[in-house]
Amino acid sequence: MANDTMKKIVSLCKRRGFVFQSSEIYGGLKACYDYGPLGVELKRNIKDAWWRDMVHRRDDIVGLDCSIIMHPDVWKASGHLAGFCDPLVDCRNCKERFRADHAPRAEAGSECIYREGGRADGKKLKGIVGPQGYTCPVCGSGDLSDERLFNLMFRTSLGPVDPMQQILNSVEELAALAPDERKQKLAGIINESAVYLRPETAQGMFVNFANVLNSSRVKPPFGIAQCGKSYRNEITTSNLTFRTCEFEQMEMEFFVKPGEDETWYEYWRSARRDWYISLGINPDRLRLRDHETSELAHYAKACSDVEYFFPFENEEGEGEWGELEGIANRTDYDLKKHAEFTGKDLSYFETETKERYVPYVIEPAAGADRATLAFLCDAYDEETLEKDDIRTVLRFHPRIAPIKAAVFPLVKRDGMPEVAEGIMKELLGEGINCFYDQAGAIGRRYRRMDEAGTPWCITVDSDTLNDKTVTVRERDSMEQKRMPIAALVPFIKEHLK
Amino acid sequence: MANDTMKKIVSLCKRRGFVFQSSEIYGGLKACYDYGPLGVELKRNIKDAWWRDMVHRRDDIVGLDCSIIMHPDVWKASGHLAGFCDPLVDCRNCKERFRADHAPRAEAGSECIYREGGRADGKKLKGIVGPQGYTCPVCGSGDLSDERLFNLMFRTSLGPVDPMQQILNSVEELAALAPDERKQKLAGIINESAVYLRPETAQGMFVNFANVLNSSRVKPPFGIAQCGKSYRNEITTSNLTFRTCEFEQMEMEFFVKPGEDETWYEYWRSARRDWYISLGINPDRLRLRDHETSELAHYAKACSDVEYFFPFENEEGEGEWGELEGIANRTDYDLKKHAEFTGKDLSYFETETKERYVPYVIEPAAGADRATLAFLCDAYDEETLEKDDIRTVLRFHPRIAPIKAAVFPLVKRDGMPEVAEGIMKELLGEGINCFYDQAGAIGRRYRRMDEAGTPWCITVDSDTLNDKTVTVRERDSMEQKRMPIAALVPFIKEHLK
Is the dihedral of CA B483, B487, B490, B493 positive or negative? Predict the structure, then answer.
């Protein structure tokens, strides 16, 4: 059944420099990846398109860039920082990680039915409550890991002294304590300097809400957008960059007057789906999946995922819906929590109505790495030309294509390389990322550019020397047309708008 | 003496949304900062200018984007990972952190003279070798901190189990051990899952050297560029974002044939200095400072710093040279070290000469946050107009200005807002970041934009309604000229090239 699409994409990614395994020469680091020369351009183009469409092309959204390490109390307020000694459990069905002491309890051995929607394909499954006597709070499964001390967040320490030194100094004191006191004492040592790598960028927008309000001339409805890395100690799978411990988010928090939240939720739900289509994603492989009430985070009023049909292998063959972005109505939960923990006023005073309110928040939260992977998978095509001639082509939208144009001299003599280099210089000068290649037969050069997803190949031949025209070969149709050199920049720029 | 320039800049940064203290509502986090709506645009523009000038406008440099968490053995090879139990010492003179057991030894109480250049101002200082009996290996100072377990790098742990759980399980076993064995046992527990936040992006380029060589059609001389966050457990000062534990780098490793390294070192040394000037930095506040031989890292053949004269306060008044970027000839040290640690071949075979060699590396390594701070300080001006009228203006180069243009209706009626909104829409559609303001007297609106560093203010007045022209007020000269609406986009784009 499977036609190994994902394997071929992974192989292309390495061969052409889209994605490498991190620290590969050291044997690699599990679920960490590096973007190669083509991958970094693809991902940058996607992030830039997001910023341009979300921040620059609108007058109601401003940007923000917060440090990844934030004050640890931020995570107490947000609920991400379960205490050091919390027993956490992983659900083997839906991959949720939860606190055992907060899980719904049921008689061990009784039957439990997984909630529909706990799996992306919406299937119902049956299970048996395990010996722990509780089930997963999200999907109701009893197929759970052992309890263990665990934190979703990566902890490190900020300060002049390594906490290991302090533990070393305290070993005998610790040994003399009763188990519970020992735990507390150790936690105390750790927590003195503990800081965390943020598990989401969103909290940066909430804690800066008042700063942005006071420094920028914004008022609800308005948004704060941020693009940056986040970290989660996730259970990772083998689907390349789909789920990684280090990942990049593109999040926007849109602050609205309570009562207007449902309208804005609907607005962003559609707008975000349409964004992927505007950059060339096949609409047939894209869907909006509304969360069921039981699936919602406790603070969320509504949530919908933009999902893409990835060519992942699974037990039923090829293809699996995976989340690209979640659009959530987070209500006034976050601002109220931070107001409560800091004692600061995080409300907004509307001068027109003399009304004071804590804004509701609509959050479209996208993953930049997942978007990059989706655009890669969506662009991947094998086209049978004639006989046994199959070409591999990445059909990227020109706006996100890593290289916009390749420039070839037909042969390495007769002044053609010089003319081609002149064209290169002109295009590079305009900030159009292009690539020069004079090695091998012209047909092979075209195919190499098909694999890189380059929309246009510009060839300088003997006619060029007379009439200053070149051949422009279009990637998808493989059609070639003649064009004056002077028309190249406007032609390419028109397609990049 | 001091005229409080830095204090005024810090205050402007918060007031107008360039830089906020991280997690400010939680009391802030030492030496961590967030970029507000204006700051994020400024920093993005600087990073984008770097990428465009280093990667897109050249055909000999490709990009890369590596994960921040890399395989821990990378840091063993690079020399960043001093063993867990190494006693580290901080030099209070030059801020170097070094291993006590590697420091040059001298008789306690003897006089030591700090090397010239150990301070940015090149002063000679005398000191006394402290009771430890060794001096700073970089500047020779005897003014040192106590020894302590310390690592420059932030350590965290990757894996399903928190190492604290394992320590807790081993407390009694640890207590029974002799001090040295105890240290080793504890280090063993920690190291099992320890990973580090990279202290520099450079190693990502070295470990991916072969991947880039095999996937991209590059050959020496060529460069690999990367922009991203790095982390160092630094001794931080109070000069805003000048020295922070979390910082963003813009690094490029340029691989050349041995023997051509000195020429390329000179090339990049000048090119990088000129880059800051091309973006508007005052050349009088910029200098290249060549490192003396004794100041060089052990692997470096030559190094030069691009320094900016910051308006920092110090004991002698205002102003201090601070490093923006270091250009180093790293020789073949890094590639050889990684080849040695991994057993992989990191050499290059030159087909023309049938010669195999390990390339030398010229590295221009810039700090994005420092560059942002330098551009902010350099742009800051207080201009006395007449009487007691002083205007604060940020004279950014248009290419890095956060907002390119502001659009004002002269009054909030007579159809002017509608025309102004139409202009906004057109500019935003072209990806020109602009700002709409209809509040307050026109003079005050101009001044607000001066403080944001916006190069042009476009005003719609009653004439606009008749002849479709607007007033364009230039930030630096404050001159106003009349221009057709249709000429605005080409006018602005011309200045952004």
Answer: positive
pLDDT in tens, A98-139: 778 778 887 777 777 654 444 444 455 566 787 788 888 777
Residues A293 and A354 in one domain: yes
Here the ipTM equals 0.90
**Is the domain of A437 the same as that of A321?**
no
pLDDT > 90 fraction of chain B, expressed in percent and rounded? 72
* Under 8 Å between Cβ of B380 and B3: no
Claim to verify: residue A329 and residue A469 sit in the same structural domain: no
Are A127 and A218 contained in the same domain?
A: no
pLDDT digits (tens, 9 = 90+) for A249-279: 999 999 999 999 999 999 999 999 999 999 9
Q: Are residues A69 and A140 in the same domain?
A: no
Selected for mutation to probe chain A from B26, B181, B236, B369 (highest A CB count within 10 Å) is B26
Domain with A344 in it: what CATH number?
3.30.930.10
Residues A19, A138, single domain; the answer is no
Based on the fold, state whether residues B205 and B266 are members of the same structural domain. Answer: yes
* CA separation for the pair A160, B146 (Å, rounded): 11
**Residues of A with Cβ-Cβ distance to B226 under 8 angstroms:** 40
CB contact under 8 A, B215 and A71: no
Indicate the residue of B29, B37, B434 with minimum beta-carbon distance to A216: B37
Domain that holds residue A119: 85-151
- Give how far A380 is from chain B: nearest CA, Å: 18
Out of A131, A151, A171, pick the residue that ends a domain: A151
B397 lies in a domain? no
| Tokens 């790095």 found at | B230
Helix (H, G, I), strand (E, B) or coil at B258: coil
- The domain that holds A487 is classified in CATH as 3.40.50.800
| Domain presence at residue B171 | no
Residue of B nearest to A151 (CA): B162
Question: How much is the average pLDDT of B40-66?
Answer: 96
Domain contains B139 = yes
CB-CB neighbors (< 8 A) of A399 in chain B: none
Cα(A61)–Cα(A57) distance, integer angstroms = 9
Most confident of A81-85, A159-163, B241-245, B283-287: B283-287
Q: Which of B15, B38, B154 sits opposite A156 (nearest CB)?
A: B154
CB contact under 8 A, B216 and A344: no
Largest CA distance in chain A: 92
Q: What percent of chain A has pLDDT over 70?
A: 94
Q: Angle at CA A16, nearest 5°, toward A12 and A17? A: 110
Determine the pLDDT at residue B106.
Answer: 79
Are the Cβ atoms of A17 and B216 closer than 8 angstroms? Answer: yes
Q: From its phi and psi, is residue A177 left (phi > 0), alpha (psi between -120 and 50) or beta?
A: beta
From B196, which residue of chain A is nearest by alpha-carbon distance?
A: A156
Residues of chain A found within 8 Å of residue B435, distances taken between Cβ atoms: 59
Identity of the residue in B37, B59, B73 whose CB atom sits nearest the CB atom of A428: B59
Strand locations in B332-421, DSSP E? 348-350, 355-357, 360-367, 380-384, 390-394, 405-409
pLDDT at B85 over 80: no
Facing residue for B67 by CB, picked from A14, A17, A33: A33
Domain membership flag for residue B482 = yes
Residue with tokens 């006018």: B491
Contacts of A84 in chain B (CB under 8 A): 164
The tens digit of pLDDT for each residue in A140-184 reads 888 888 887 767 899 999 876 788 888 999 999 999 999 889 989
Q: Which of A11, A26, A89 to mutate to test the interface with B (most CBs of B within 10 A)?
A: A26
Is A201 in the same domain as A68?
yes
DSSP state of B280: T
The verdict on whether omega for the bond into residue A221 sits within 30 degrees of 0, i.e. cis, is yes
| DSSP-derived 3-state class of residue B398 | coil
Domains contained in chain B, number: 3
